[in-house]
Structure formats: structure tokens, C-alpha cells
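User: Predict the full complex structure for these chains.
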Amino acid sequence: MKKLTIVLLLVLLSGCSLMEAYLMKYDTNEYQYITEIRTMSQIGLAKCENYDETKRKAEDLYIKSMTFVNFAQYLPYNSSTQKASVELNSMVQGFHEQYQKNDKVNPLFCKLKLGNIISSAESMQKTIGAKPR
Amino acid sequence: MSVEQQQQLLASVDSLNPEANSAAEEVNQLTEAVKSGQLSRAEYIELVKDIQHRINIHQDMSELETLEKINTAINGLINLASMV
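Assistant: Here is the predicted structure of the two-chain assembly.
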């Protein structure tokens, strides 16, 4: 009863942010998606010199990243991850498009782009992994 | 403003926020790479856009970290209240 009273009080006093803080939960699938995006990008980094292989990997990475956006989209109390997943997907989409539009892509671009995706995915992984169980 | 003037402006960035300094330095490095032909204009634009995406992700994750701390505090308070 005390717990219920405190929770009701907090909800009444604050609004959405505090409610989100109290009700958000760690999601294994969400954590898995961001881990896979980071891992696929790390593996891709070593293959930047190979256009055909990187083009295929860019397609796979884009599908994974879009799935992550769609997965996070309707999870309740998840607004920060939803926004970050859209940002990350924009980065991956830009990478994918370069390989769709061009017959040749600069390996330096590939390395810098994947480096950006890896660092962002790692930062997201760290925070998403710390969500309350 | 010319490219050089824009670069000078970026080089003069001396923020207390290390992320802002790092972003300014990175844009300058990318600009040098496009000037020397190491990157195409399209690649350059895409990589500069990434800097903004990374800043936005950083902000979203800072917000999430704050919520996680609030969650820990709320649960701690509830536990304490339950013991009384």
C-alpha cells in the first residue's frame, strides 16, 4: 500500500519523464539488436577494401538497423532509445546509399563511416545495457 | 565566407565542452580531406552529417542515463519506505 501511494504521488507530481524513469525496463532483444549493429560494423571495417562484400554487408546492416528502429518504436517508456535508434539508422542509411548509388566507394569513407557507427552503437549499448531489470 | 574562413572559425572554437571542441576539429580534418581529394563532396557531406547524428545520440543517451539514475533513486526510496 505504501509503495502504491508513493508511486501514485510521484506520477501525480511529475509527469512523463519521472513515469518513464520508473516504468522503463531493460529489453534483451533491444540490447541484442544494438550489439549486432556494432559487431557487424566492426567486422565490416576490416573489409572496406572489398567493394562487393561491403555492399552486401551495408545492405545487411541497414536491414538490422531498420529492424532496431521498428522494434524500439512501440516499446512503452522508451523515448530516448527510440530517438537514438532513428539517428543511428540515418547514419547507416547514408552508408547503405553510397553503395547503392555508386559502383565504387572510397575505402576511407567506409572506414570513417563505420567508425562513426561503431562509436555511436557502443555508446548506446552501454546505456541500454544499464536499463533497470 | 570562404572555406578557409569557415575553417578558421572552427579552429577558434574553444568550448568548455570537449565534445564541441572535438566536433570542430573533426569537421576541419574532413574539410582538409575533401580539399586534398581524399574524400568526394558527397562523402564529405555524409560524414559531416554523422557528427550531428552522433551529438544527438549522445544527448539521447545522456537523457536515458539520467532516467536510469532516477529509477535507482525511486526504487531505493520505495525500499526504504517499505522498511519503515
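Residues 25-129 of chain A form a domain with the Four Helix Bundle (Hemerythrin (Met), subunit A) fold (CATH 1.20.120).
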